[in-house]
Design brief:
Length: 746
């Protein structure tokens, strides 16, 4: 049977259980696909064990049904959707179900078709949860993976393979396969995670040099949960497949569709704030918060933050209502002190876990998720916590849900309107649940539902340590990186963990850049905190600037986590320049070609101005450049570097190369060369004129510039005049709005 949907031809051979997908322009993309399912008794029912039953086509698509061993069987549905093909598999078997795989591309004559040079192909992975590594890898590279399950479970999918090899990969939710030699790409991704965790397995079959094909299995994982009354038919999450020649377009479209499917919550405004964690850690006291609150209130016209958020350190992990004596005034007074100063009170909790030393662990162990020996499931160890080990709640137990609701209702009553829920991945770990028919995703989403219900719709909810796709629709903001830290990298810890997930500036910047496109499609991105202080901070000024640049260009939240009483004027200038945030995300143009994207670009919406960061990830000086085609800034452009206040001249064919110090970046703005004078940049805000220039007009020999930008500012406005080799600059001081006049006559 031949079916044509969107730009694709589906060639279905019912008898052979074989599907070929071709794109009308790009040709064949998937050859020899079948479907598969797995039952506890029946085992894995692979395509070749299925017998044809029936098929049907409609205007929108087609479905095919197969019979398997015993009474089992399945139906595969396919239809066109927004430039791709939507698939789902219904598995009919009255027993515990494992994998439900709508797309299995394996065996002789099968494969993903991207053209020649399989060993050059790359794949992109977003990572499982907030702290997981993200970015693209070569198909034959090995995924860096922690050697101990204790680490993997805290950062990766609950059944992430331990000994990954080059050429064999587990990718969560979705992947973009990309052949850099011809530009062809294919996206295979699940649009939903309401019931099952879903993943894509990739496997290169053949020798490394003569690798002959790429096999693929896209499946939802039933976790062998018990059969629920009336639910003998289990349907995979929805899978979307699309091909093209622009991997960004596919990835962004996928995110948009999944966001729509999962009913993403996208607040209008991107919050900014202060967070206690990265300076005080668990030692934070009420006095520390008050001192910073004073600073923020005093400097409100300089640092316009919305939220003041207390992080970990106010109570034993798990006993959220029992604040310690470092907070003598208690939770309500703190919240009202914060709101009284005009800020949104914010609070950190890890509502789905408790530490071994906590009262909840000791006295309410019936709330905990148990393993098959009835022992609490270990979520991981955290040396920062007394008791060290921590354990998940079983959120299929109504008592655990009651507990979560009680905690969150109190948080609301105390007055907190911004809540960071952390370590929530633990709720999805495997175990023997109170409801044996529930999957990890169902347990997790029941917990999120309870939180939302108790907090109300108007509280901003930030996910952290959270599985990505299953959180969409509940959280307003999401941490999309590993923790930042007052150091670029923690080499000893990295050597133990063997994956780039340890708290480190490098890892935070990497996540923020690689997951940019999730911003405003799944939630508001939280790229973690900016640290600018000199004391108790090993970051160099270059590294701080790279952090600030990546945060700003990510368009996500701008959070600061310094002791503001100790930040000097020069470093304060960085905070001022990063606020308010840009709110629109840049695109790492080499995301699909490089693991560490070096070119982070935005053409400012509705403007001909470009913002580009060139990042040197290396530990030594290196040349970094951007080809003009990649940033779509054709023709002559003036280029200006923000941090150094340096005019870089006219760029035409490419930007750079620039010889950059280790871990540093160039933060460049570009505007087209013109025959009129124009504002090129400013030194007082990182948007470099993309925000805050209300008007620029020529008046006789002068250019009159009106500025509108919240806060008290001073700095230079740079104006470039036709035929001149340097911009002119004028000093300006203003609060919220101001005017400056720059002579532009030769
Ligand atoms: C508070 C912190 C901050 C931070 C979170 C999260 O695996 N670990 O031991 C581990 C420890 C801390 C951590 C993540 C993992 O950081 O991301 O912003 O809130 O908890 O304890």
């Amino acid at each position: 049977m031949q079916v044509s949907v969107e730009n694709y031809n589906l060639d279905i051979d019912l008898a052979a259980c074989r599907l070929d997908i071709s794109h009308k322009k790009l040709g064949n993309i998937i050859r020899g696909a079948g479907c598969a399912y797995q039952g506890l008794q029946t085992g894995l029912v692979e395509p070749y064990r299925l017998s044809p039953e029936s098929e049907s086509r409609t205007d929108a698509g087609a479905w095919v049904s197969y019979r398997g061993p015993g009474d089992s069987g399945c139906t595969l549905r396919m239809e066109g959707m927004e430039g791709g093909v939507l698939m789902s598999l219904e598995a009919r078997l009255n027993e515990r179900v494992g994998r439900i795989a709508p797309l299995v591309v394996e065996g002789e004559g099968s494969g993903v078709v991207l053209g020649e040079n399989l060993h050059h192909w790359r794949f992109f992975r977003s990572g499982y949860q907030s702290w997981s590594p993200s970015g693209s890898l070569g198909i034959l590279e090995a995924e860096p993976t922690p050697p101990l399950s204790l680490f993997t479970r805290a950062v990766m999918h609950p059944s992430h393979p331990f000994k990954p090899k080059g050429g064999k990969h587990h990718v969560d939710w979705a992947t973009v396969l990309y052949n850099p030699t011809n530009g062809k790409c294919v996206l295979v991704g699940f649009l939903s995670a309401r019931k099952y965790l879903s993943a894509i397995e990739l496997e290169v079959v053949g020798q490394t040099d003569a690798a002959d094909r790429l096999e693929l299995r896209a499946y939802s994982d039933g976790e062998l949960a018990a059969v629920r009354e009336g639910e003998e038919v289990r349907t995979s999450e929805k899978l979307w497949i699309a091909a093209g020649d622009d991997p960004h377009q596919l990835w962004e479209k996928y995110l948009e569709l999944a966001g729509r499917e999962m009913k993403a919550r996208i607040p209008e405004k991107v919050p900014t704030g202060w967070c206690s964690w990265y300076h005080y850690f668990t030692k934070v006291t009420e006095k520390d918060v008050s001192a910073n609150l004073d600073q923020l209130a005093e400097r409100k016209n300089e640092v316009a933050v919305d939220v003041v958020q207390l992080d970990d350190g106010y109570c034993p992990v798990g006993d959220w209502l029992e604040w310690n004596d470092k907070f003598p005034s208690g939770p309500e007074k703190l919240a009202s002190a914060i709101s009284g100063r005009g800020f949104i009170p914010g609070l950190w909790l890890a509502p789905f876990i408790c530490a071994r030393g906590s009262k909840t662990y000791r006295e309410n162990s019936d709330l905990l998720l148990k393993d098959w020996r009835d022992k609490p499931v270990l979520a991981s160890l955290n040396p920062m916590w007394k008791g060290v080990a921590y354990y998940p709640l079983d959120l299929t137990n109504p008592k655990a849900i009651d507990y979560v609701k009680r905690v969150m209702s109190s948080v609301r009553e105390w007055g907190y309107r911004y809540v960071k829920i952390d370590f929530v991945y633990a709720a999805l770990l495997r175990g023997r649940r109170h409801d044996p028919a529930a999957t990890g995703v169902e347990a997790y989403r029941a917990g999120l539902e309870a939180i939302r219900e108790s907090l109300g719709d108007d509280v901003l909810l930030l996910g952290c340590g959270a599985p990505l796709l299953p959180s969409v629709g509940y959280v307003d903001m999401m941490r999309i990186s590993a923790d930042v830290a007052p150091k670029w990298r923690d080499a000893p810890l990295r050597a133990v963990v063997r994956a780039p997930v340890e708290p480190a500036c490098e890892n935070a910047v990497h996540g923020a850049v690689c997951r940019s496109a999730m911003h405003r499609r799944w939630w508001i991105n939280d790229p973690d905190c900016l640290l600018v202080r000199r004391e108790r901070n090993k970051l160099t000024l270059d590294e701080i600037r790279t952090l600030a640049t990546a945060m700003f260009l990510s368009g996500g939240m701008v959070l600061v986590s310094d002791d503001l009483t100790g930040v000097d004027e020069e470093r304060f200038q960085i905070i001022r320049a990063a606020l308010p945030g840009l709110e629109t995300e840049a695109r790492p143009v080499d995301l699909f070609g490089n693991h560490d994207p070096m070119v982070y670009h935005l053409q400012v919406p509705g403007s001909d101005r470009h913002l580009v960061a060139l990042i040197n990830w290396k530990d030594k000086r290196a040349d970094v450049e951007a080809p003009i085609e990649k940033i779509d800034a054709h023709g002559d452009h003036h280029a200006f570097e923000f941090w150094r206040g340096a005019y870089l001249g006219i760029s035409d064919r490419k930007l750079g190369p620039f010889h950059l110090p280790p871990h540093s970046c160039y933060f460049i703005t570009m505007i087209p060369r013109s025959d009129k004078p124009r504002v090129l940049s400013t030194s007082f805000h990182m948007s470099q004129g993309a925000m805050g220039i209300a008007e620029e007009k020529l008046d006789g020999d002068n250019m009159e510039i009106s500025l509108e930008l919240p806060g008290k500012r001073s700095g230079y406005v740079y104006v470039i005049c036709p035929g001149e080799g340097m911009p002119r600059k004028a000093w300006v001081e203003f609060e919220d709005s101001g005017k400056v006049s720059v002579p532009v006559k030769k």
